[in-house]
Amino acid sequence: MQNHTPVFNRFLFLFISFPLGLIFFVLTVVGLSLSTSLLIIWIGLPLLLLTLFLIRGMAALERSMLASLTGVVIWTKSPPTRSGGKTRFMAILRDPDTWKSALYMLLKLPLGIVSFTICLTLPIIATSLTVMPLVYIVLTSIVGNTDAHIAQIFFSDSYTFIPITGVFNLIDFAKCLACAALGVLAWIGIAKVIHGMTALWEGVARALLGSEETMKGPTPAEPYDLHYTGLQAQEMRG
């Protein structure tokens, strides 16, 4: 099924991936480190159980965000809820999906930093280029009417500037228009970059948050029950 998720939704997912990645990383590292170091006493075991449940909960939240913001639906499985506490704990402990989810929580931080940086810097650069003609006109008007000190607008590289003297210069304005054209092209490129970044996230999420047994559809895989949302069911029908 072709994905027609709006670019803004994908941008939002990438933008919040860093703060969420930081939270997930800290909870995973602190939880696993503390619980394993305390296994020699009784408190380590319940703390490890709590950490594993927390990791699976964060993985479920991540799958939900991927589905709602990027349109990426990832099938998964969960341990049975009717079994005893010890059996359920051992099932979670032995389940590869638990540890793949933990690995995802660790990778989310560096990937989130890259995504956040791209989402923050590229739009700023594109916006600066796009509005440069307007900035030139406004600053020229201000300098011309107030006799303020001469200002300069950065253009092309560190050795070339567009001077603001208070007198409209057609050549300098043409440079600003060229910057605006580059800004428009930059916005188009940003949309492609956002799609590429979300595709990277999709690949990582499918590898670490999905279950191989459930990739082909909603068929139960013992001893697990398959859980899927209405969005997933709609995708299967589509």
UniProtKB/TrEMBL annotation:
Claim: Transport is one of the keywords in the record: no
A Pfam family reported for this protein in Swiss-Prot or TrEMBL: Sensor
Source species, domain of life: Bacteria
Segments traversing the membrane: 12-32, 38-55, 109-139, 159-188
Keyword Transmembrane assigned: yes
InterPro entries given in the database record: Put_sensor_dom
Record's signal peptide: none
Keywords: Membrane, Transmembrane, Transmembrane helix
Residue ranges occupied by any Putative sensor domain in the UniProt entry: 13-209
Protein name per Swiss-Prot or TrEMBL: Putative sensor protein
Source organism: Thermosporothrix hazakensis
